[in-house]
Amino acid sequence: MAAPKKGRSASAQSRPGRALVLILIAIAALTGGMFASGHTTPRLGIDLAGGTSITLTAKNEPGQPNAINKTNMDTAVDIMNRRVNGLGVSEAEVQTQGRDNIIVNIPKGTNSKQAREQVGTTAKLYFRPVLTTEVSGADKSATPSPSTSSSSKATDKSTDKATASPSSSVTPSATATSQGRAVTDALKADSSPSAGSSASSSPTPTPSGSVDPATAKLQAAYTALDCSNKADRATAGDGAKPADPTVACGQNGSGQWQKYVLGPAEVAGTDIKKAGAVFDTQSAAGWKVTMDFTSGGSKKFAAITGKLAQQQPPQNQFAIVLDGEVVSDPSVAQSLSGSAEISGSFTQTEAQDLANMLKYGALPLSFKESSVTTVTAALGGEQLHAGLIAGAIGLALVILYLVIYYRGLSAIAIASLLVSAVLTYVLMALLGPAIGFALNLPAVCGAIVAIGITADSFIVFFERIRDEIREGRTLRPAVERAWPRARRTILVSDFVSFLAAAVLFIVTVGKVQGFAFTLGLTTVLDVVVVFFFTKPLMTLLARKKFFASGHPWSGLDPKRLGAKPPLRRTRRASAPVDTKEA
């Protein structure tokens, strides 16, 4: 029986070493990964790195005086958050302020400019038939021949066929009279009912031959529209409902501005199930945006493309209108369904921006930029400096207390604090590019608070060991008997801290989440360090003479702790035997 007992003892003695080697390998691997990734410092939030703060004010939509409400504002905040997060911008904050304002804080970074362009974009998308179009304003003089619109196309992925003919606009008219006639003729051609709209939705000439007021208003708007003028482009089609014809502007493949008369919307952006930016390697089109429709959207798209395929240019085109601007006007040669694509002279960024906005949906409200403020890192740097000083003072006081009260045991506590600090720093640096975590001032406060949580775990363990020594046990059995009791206390304490951090992270927004995340992260690391470093190190040092003999500076001196003498069994003296009686 002696041999198995010796084997078990040797196995037990090797476990502390294995645990220490394991955590040291983990630290080395994480540190190597940090240097290999090139992210050797944590990403900083807007208060520490600087950035841009944008104030967006909601605008009332025509005919919708009560559109600005809490539900729509909360929906807009959620969509903006998803758009920005889809770009990978770290620590961007989107929150309401008052009744009609949204504050967007974007840290300085590679995608901050791109995020600024997207947060306030309404991204209302409609597919409208083109009734008539021509080159607008000053661009006419540069076009001696009929203009050609952007070389875009619609693709039916289920059949993998695409229209190959470019969409050509009508020849520019020289007079307002011919422009008005073009609008009237186009509306006549579009007066037949379609699957997506009724005949009544398009104003048509009256039986007497005169033009009704709606058509006359549309003619006047089209004649007066100068798309080369930025102010005209911004107001083109304002107030038009999806079921009404409207005017719009867009750039053709030559970079010239064209103006359009567009029919009622046949397909909306809400009919898109998903969108993505892809690079077309089969043609010279370059980057394009692919879209998959819902089942209802696919039927609508098939109906409108089937109708347009029977028309003559430019009425065989449909305009893809984003926030009132024509981004593409592909021609149609056959009925399409299921999927579509928007192609043209897109850059990668432009294609990704458009796909991102289509994917996350349109904002329920329109917004204007009330103010744009550049936030410098100077104030945050001063606050960080002050916070680090406070943290250093707190850490120094904790170490001083450990040295005075626990003496030699303080070396174990300080080593454990260093291991915890290294793990925290490395993980913060790696989580930046991985999940977009950014270090802000509240997160720094969470890390400072974690010093006390970590030190508390060491104190619980040390006090349990001291209690066992006071009962008269030697150090090695005292460590093993103290650990189960200390372990339960540490786990319960850390569970409560982690639960509080999780609840705080869920119910709060903005920078407070940084505090909660850091607090939760350091609480988990506290458990890892205590189990895989502090306990194994204490077990190994308990075998050393300095600690095992209860040296006065070890912090485990039995006399100083008031230990009881060990209990020993004694035999009672037997009564003398009377030999004579025996």
Could you please describe the fold and organization of this structure?
This protein is α+β, with helices and mostly antiparallel strands. It is 48% helix and 16% strand. The protein contains 16 helices and 15 strands. The protein has a five-stranded mixed β-barrel with strand order 4-8-7-13-12. It has a four-stranded antiparallel sheet with strand order 2-3-1-15. A three-stranded antiparallel sheet has the order 10-11-14. The longest helix is centred in the first third of the chain and has 36 residues, at 2-37. The chain is elongated, with a radius of gyration of 37 Å.
List the helices and strands and how they pair.
Blueprint: H1 2-37, H2 46-49, E1 51-59, H3 70-86, E2 93-97, E3 101-107, H4 112-119, E4 125-135, E5 155-156, E6 161-162, H5 176-189, H6 213-224, H7 230-235, E7 246-251, E8 257-262, E9 267-268, E10 272-280, E11 286-293, H8 295-308, E12 318-322, E13 325-328, E14 339-346, H9 348-360, E15 366-375, H10 378-406, H11 409-435, H12 441-470, H13 475-507, H14 511-541, H15 545-548, H16 558-561
Parallel strand pairs: 7-13
Antiparallel strand pairs: 1-3, 1-15, 2-3, 4-8, 4-9, 4-12, 5-6, 7-8, 10-11, 11-14, 12-13
Task: Put the structure in a nutshell.
The protein is of the alpha+beta class and 582 residues long. 48% of the residues lie in helices and 16% in strands. It contains 16 helices and 15 strands.
User: Rounded to an integer, what's the Rg over CA atoms?
Assistant: 37 Å
The main β sheet shows up as: 5 strands, mixed, barrel
- First-last Cα distance: 44 Å
- Point out poorly predicted stretches: 1-14, 142-178, 192-208
SS-based class: alpha+beta
Helix fraction, binned, reads 40-55%
Q: State the total count of DSSP E strands.
A: 15
> What is the helix tally?
16
Mean pLDDT across residues: 76
Beta-strand share of residues: 15-25%
Basic shape: elongated
- Strand arrangement within the widest β-sheet reads 4-8-7-13-12
